[in-house]
Design goal:
The termini are far apart. Helices cover 60% and strands 0% of the residues. The chain contains 2 helices and no strands. The relative contact order is 0.08. The protein has one domain. The mean pLDDT is 82. By secondary structure, it is mostly helical.
């Protein structure tokens, strides 16, 4: 953001544009921080490994019903 503020200081960028960019940038940083917190919380709760799907795999046996 230094380059944006510098452009505003030397009158290459209007103050209103600078403020708009800075507000959107700050909002994006907050969203990113929230995403990182969420990921870290999930890692803490579930561990660091990838979630895997475990299922029952059946062979090619035939089943019979006995009366």
């Amino acid at each position: 953001m230094t380059h944006i503020r510098y452009a505003s200081d030397v009158k290459l960028l209007q103050k209103s544009v600078t403020e708009s960019i800075c507000l959107r940038y700050d909002d994006a940083l907050q969203q990113l921080a929230n995403l990182i917190k969420s990921i870290e919380r999930k890692i803490h709760l579930k561990g660091k490994s990838k979630a895997t799907v475990y299922g029952v795999k059946e062979g090619f046996e035939s089943y019979e019903i006995n009366p």
